[in-house]
Automatic annotation (TrEMBL), chain A:
Lineage summary: Archaea, Methanobacteriati, Methanobacteriota, Stenosarchaea group, Methanomicrobia
Protein known as: Methanol methyltransferase corrinoid protein
Residue ranges of domain B12-binding N-terminal in the record: 30-124
Family: Belongs to the methylamine corrinoid protein family.
InterPro entries for the chain: Cbl-bd_cap (IPR003759), Cobalamin-bd (IPR006158), Cobalamin-bd_sf (IPR036724), Corrinoid_p (IPR012741), Met_Synthase/Corrinoid (IPR050554), Meth_synthase_dom (IPR036594)
TrEMBL record, chain B:
Family annotation (Pfam families): MtaB
Protein name according to UniProt: Methanol:corrinoid methyltransferase
Single GO molecular function: methyltransferase activity
Origin superkingdom: Archaea
InterPro entries: MeOH-cob_MeTrfase_bsu (IPR021079)
Organism expressing this protein natively: Methanosarcina lacustris Z-7289
Keywords per UniProt: Methyltransferase, Transferase
Gene Ontology biological process terms from the UniProt entry: methylation
């Protein structure tokens, strides 16, 4: 076949990612962020490495040294996950690393809960679902994992969720936010029905939507809709609600980019 | 038993060209695919509120069909394919899909009769074999699934397709955890098992109804990897991992043709150049004219060997230039006019190479699907064509080798992260057994334990 000369390629494409790549390796960057406490450090590092067994070993050591299991959730597990989240936000590590770290952290939380009768205090509850008629749930699964990793209590309703079931979960769970994902244009119409039923009941909570065919214009058509372009936006929207309240217009001003 | 491909349809990569397939397919109203010319294929989605009732849906598809056919006649396009990808309501209620097919075909026949435009209607049935909690690949859902094919075929669809989801439960778990063995198991083993079953049955329906079983695509898995990988600056998945998933998708998609499909394969099967190299069937592809649906770093290279050129899918609504289906079908038609002009002038291979080269070094995915590399992946598959596991592993390893060669040439420049991810995937693959039974046994044990929604009985295991 015909071929390009090496020196001609730069005139056809620019590898912005190669030019921008950080000098520091991900491991080096993580090392700079770990807490220095010698009991917390191995837990945080094990979360970054996604090593579930090592996380539990670290927790056992910390508990044996006198740390309270319930405190370790915020003081060690969330701190370790915070390192992972920062590296992901900075573009240093990729999503699979975050997912594996989230698995390790959640495993650690379960272990801590098994060691105490105290109940951990979540940052808030978020209800997640995939629109009725739609069985594509990888996006929702990422959203739920990232929210849990950020300390939220997630009620995961699964996929192909009937409208009334979503409403019932919101009534029961009193979440700070509802999320919806969809792949098809005809399934995402369910979002509008959910919006209308929530308003009928006087429930004015942000309804963060995204996925496949979902776009900002559609989401902005209903009163509670806040569009999330990336799965990681769900965490940012939830954090914004905790920080500044659930004013939909303010959230749209921050997250509607187009 | 299906007959597996163990040799290549083409003696060499250079023999492959757009608009030309070793085994052309006649379909619809005067259309022949892969017989020396390319044809545009417009794909669309109804507006959200159109799904509220059957009547609204039929009306929406009538508008879409009329808009496309009228625009094609207005610009003098010699041929057009309409692809209706079912919304779930149409596949779950086979009579709905059938009525839509009938309504569309009636309009297309009127245009064919009046203007002689060559045209065909493809219906892509939704893979509805899921309930809320589990894939339910066999059983009652499967009966409705097959009924949807048959009813559409009887009512006007000329070409039958699907984007099936066998293996997706294991794949979804694995791709988010950099689990190479799980990706291989989900796509290459479980996906292949499911493909052999469904395409044997779909091909029978096509034969019975005089329609064309066109093929499948690994949209649910390889495209998921590609979408998660995103653009050059995205940080969700290594593109080197995504191309390994793509390579593994080729032997899986090939199963459809081994079970009786004849092409043209589905547009979003970016593995299709590999498929064409092995099987000689015509293929549909999408690229720069599917940016209405997604971005994929392979705008031109996918056109290199296509026989049908598609826009993937666009929501039906108004634009300045007409409705979206009018705008995008017109764009596709001009793309095809360019390719067909090159063929008439004897410049087809030059254009093919220009198309491939314009993307080849952009990304490891484009690098591997560039036709001469795609051919090599095809050879790796055909070498162990009778063994679904081994040929998937071969394809994955060969794609790693090809990307490494590209890096070593200096022309494919990747980030350190991408290179490390490639090394990890390759090391994982090298460490895997060559014994298919052993791999199957180990994987069943591991994923039954790790993936709560994985049910081996879906695959007859």
């Amino acid at each position: 076949m015909l071929d390009l000369k090496l020196e001609d390629i730069d005139g056809i494409l620019v590898r912005y990612n190669v030019a921008l790549e950080k000098e520091m390796t991900p491991d080096e960057a993580a090392e700079e962020l770990y807490p220095k406490d010698e009991l917390i450090y191995p837990i945080a590092k094990s979360i970054y490495e996604g090593e579930e067994d090592d996380v539990v070993d670290g927790l056992k050591a910390a508990i044996a040294a006198g740390k309270k299991p319930i405190d370790l959730i915020n003081d060690a597990l969330m701190v370790g996950m915070g390192v992972v989240s920062k590296l992901y936000d900075d573009g240093i590590i990729f999503l699979p690393n975050v997912m594996m770290s989230a698995d390790a952290m959640l495993n650690g939380i379960e272990f801590c809960k098994s060691q105490t009768t105290e109940v951990p205090e979540p940052k808030g509850t978020v209800v997640c679902h995939v629109a009725e008629g739609d069985v594509h749930d990888i996006g929702k699964n990422i959203v739920a994992a990232l929210l849990r990793a950020a300390g939220y209590d997630v009620t995961d309703l699964g996929r192909d969720v009937p409208v009334d079931e979503v409403i019932a979960a919101v009534v029961k769970g009193k979440p700070i936010m509802l999320t919806g994902t969809a792949l098809m244009t005809t399934t995402m119409y369910a979002f509008k029905e959910i919006n209308d039923k929530l308003l009928e009941k006087g429930l004015k909570l942000p309804f963060a939507c995204g996925g496949g065919a979902v776009n900002q214009d559609f989401v902005a058509q209903y009163d509670l809709g806040v569009y999330g372009e990336e799965a990681s936006d769900a965490v940012k929207i939830a954090d914004a609600i905790l920080a500044s309240g659930n004013d939909i217009e303010k959230l749209r001003a921050e997250f509607h980019k187009h | 038993m299906v007959k597996k491909y163990t040799s290549m349809a083409y003696a060499k990569a250079d023999d492959m060209l757009f608009g030309n397939a070793k085994f052309p397919v006649k379909t619809g109203l005067g259309l022949e695919i892969g017989a020396g010319y390319t044809t545009p294929e417009i794909n669309y989605a109804p507006r959200p509120q159109a799904g509220k009732s059957k009547d609204k849906l039929i009306k929406e598809y009538e508008r879409i069909t009329t808009d496309v056919m009228s625009r094609m006649v207005q610009i003098g396009a010699p041929s057009i394919i309409l692809e209706t990808e079912h919304v779930e309501q149409m596949s779950n209620n086979p009579s709905w899909g059938a009525e839509v097919a009938h309504a569309q075909k009636t309009i297309m026949e009127e245009y064919h009769d009046e203007y002689g435009i060559k045209c065909a209607l493809r219906h892509t049935i939704g893979d509805i074999r899921e309930d809320r909690d589990f894939l339910q690949l066999r059983g009652d859902k499967y009966s409705v699934f097959l009924e949807a094919f048959e009813e559409c075929a009887k009512s006007g669809a000329d070409m039958l397709a699907v984007e099936s989801m066998g293996g997706k439960e294991v794949f979804d778990y694995s791709i988010l955890r950099n689990d190479t063995a799980g990706i291989l198991f989900g796509i290459g083993v479980l996906g292949s098992i499911d493909m052999e079953m469904i395409w044997t049955d779909i091909a029978k329906i096509a034969k019975k109804t005089g329609t064309v079983a066109t093929g499948d695509t690994d949209c649910a898995q390889a495209n998921t990897a590609m979408f998660i990988a995103g653009g050059l600056l995205d940080k969700n998945l290594a593109h080197t991992t995504a191309i390994v998933a793509r390579a593994i998708s080729a032997p899986r998609t090939l199963c459809g043709f081994e079970a009786g499909a004849t092409g043209p394969g589905k547009d979003c099967g970016y593995e299709n150049t590999i498929i064409k190299a092995i099987s000689g069937v015509p293929i549909a592809q999408e690229g720069k004219s599917s940016t209405c649906a997604h971005s994929d770093l392979m705008g031109n290279v996918t056109m290199q060997c296509c026989d049908v050129w598609s826009n993937e899918s666009v929501e039906y609504h108004g634009e300045f230039g007409g409705t979206t289906v009018q705008c995008w079908s017109e764009t596709l038609a001009y793309d095809c006019a360019m390719m067909n002009t090159a063929l008439k002038l004897g410049k087809g291979k030059d254009l093919r190479d220009i198309l491939a080269l314009s993307d080849k070094y952009r990304d490891p995915q484009g690098y591997v699907v560039s036709y001469e590399n795609a051919y090599r992946v095809g050879q790796a598959i055909a070498k162990d064509g009778n063994n679904n596991y081994l040929r998937a592993k071969n394809a994955a390893l060969e794609s790693c080798n090809i990307v490494e060669e590209g890096i070593n040439s200096g022309k494919l420049r990747l980030t350190r992260f991408e290179i490390n991810a490639l090394a990890k995937v390759k090391a994982d693959l090298v460490a895997l057994t060559d014994d298919a039974d052993k791999f199957m046994s180990e994987s069943l044990t591991k994923y039954k334990q790790e993936v709560a929604v994985f049910r081996p009985e879906n695959y007859g295991l």
